[in-house]
Amino acid sequence: MLDQTDLRILDELSKNSRITMKELSERVHLSSPATSARVEKLETAGIIEGYTIKVNQLKMGYFVHAMISVIMKSSHHEPYLSYIKAQAPFVIQNYKISGDSCYLLECKFPSNAVLDEFLVGLSEHVNYKLSIIISK
User: Fold this and answer.
1) CB burial class (10 A; 0-12, 13-18, 19+) of residue 109?
2) Which label site among 3, 54, 84, 127 has the fewest CB atoms less than 10 Å from its CB?
């Protein structure tokens, strides 16, 4: 069971996973060894699965943000999943969902031309509905 200190540690690490243990311990009002022990406990319990970075997609040149609802043409999903794996640089997330669609793809593309090329390949495997993100 997580207590308030564990929740504060998780909150601080989610804001900045590169924070030093010294800084983290000051923010959660514990000693550095106690903070390190709690972080290790959270890692061992599988609550903290890893540390990552947040990449600015616009600065990387990915200007087109799209959500694509995927409707399978058949019950055989492997060709679609292989295509998505091959298109990994553009795919942010491939959610398996319930409802009108089978999957919801979140993607970023450097241009509409690259998006169009992606959709042409995608249409060989599935039907889809495209939504472009205008703003957050």
Assistant:
1) buried
2) 54
